Amino acid sequence: MTNAFTSLRPLVLASGSPRRRAFLEGMGIPFEVLPADCPEPRPVPGEDPREYTNRCAEAKARHVLAALAHRGDSPAVLSADTTVIIRDEHGSDILGKPRDKAEAVAMLSRLSGRTHQVVTACCLAMDGHVERFDDVTDVTFARWPLPLIEAYADSGDPLDKAGAYGIQEGGAFMVQGIRGSWSTVVGLPLDLVLERLLTAGVLKLNEKR
Predict the structure, then answer these.
(1) Closest CA to 172 of 201, 144, 136
(2) Over 90: is that where the pLDDT of 171 sits?
(3) Which of 8, 55, 169, 187 has a C-alpha 20 to 30 A away from that of 78?
(4) pLDDT digits over 120-165, tens only?
(5) Contacts of 98 (CB under 8 A, 6+ apart)
(6) Catalytic residue numbers?
């Protein structure tokens, strides 16, 4: 989708995720990349997982916006944070990126045969203020035997992904179905992002002549 948009101010993506970059590139949206190198906030006891995900996205956006304060071209900063949430009779747990293969296997085994939620929260920061927005998608895993889960963990694919799987890559076989946005599961709710960028005046849609 080349030349669909005109940039009204610089857009900076506060993420090093190649999947998020690919989404924006595929939409023909001009942007720069400056990953947020700040420590990720820790969950507060009793904090709702969705609120926590939004708080993480806001922290990243604020950090990068502050780092760009010296620029005179008024950049807008877009950040995103994705978490996997599993809910049961004991409450809600956040599944982030696994530390190693053993933790990846434990996460995938817990998700196997169950439905969980994927939350991607975004934050658009510009002109000294921030706007947070998010999307939630239900993902159902088929029930898979342990040897297959271990084989997927051996591939290394789960280690940089929330919940230890990538629906767009090798982990697609685990998913039986989704209810909601596929792009949210991958890491960026495209429809919401595009709407906010247009509404906030970061982009404008080119008219056909």
Answers:
(1) 144
(2) no
(3) 169
(4) 999 999 998 899 999 999 999 999 999 999 999 999 989 988 899 9
(5) 104, 106, 107, 158, 159, 164
(6) 81
Average pLDDT, the chain: 92
When pLDDT is cut at 50, 70 and 90, the band that residue 93 belongs to is confident
What domain count does the chain have? 1
Whether residue 141 contacts residue 207, with contact meaning beta carbons closer than 8 Å, is answered with: no
Q: Can you say whether the dihedral through the CA atoms of 104, 78, 52, 39 is positive or negative? A: positive
With b for 16 or more beta-carbon neighbours within 10 A and e for fewer, the 75-92 pattern comes to bbbbbbbbbbbbeeeeee
**Which residue, chain included where needed, has tokens 């993902």?**
139
Q: What is the pLDDT of residue 209?
A: 57
Domain at 21, CATH number:
3.90.950.10
Packing angle between helix 146-154 and helix 101-111, nearest 10 degrees?
A: 140
Q: Identify the band that residue 34 occupies on the pLDDT scale cut at 50, 70 and 90.
A: very high
Q: What whole-number distance in Å separates Cα of residue 28 and Cα of residue 32?
A: 13
Alpha helices by DSSP H, listed for the chain, are: 18-26, 49-67, 101-111, 146-154, 182-186, 190-199
Supply the range of the domain harboring residue 137: 5-205
CA dist 39 and 6 (Å) reads 34
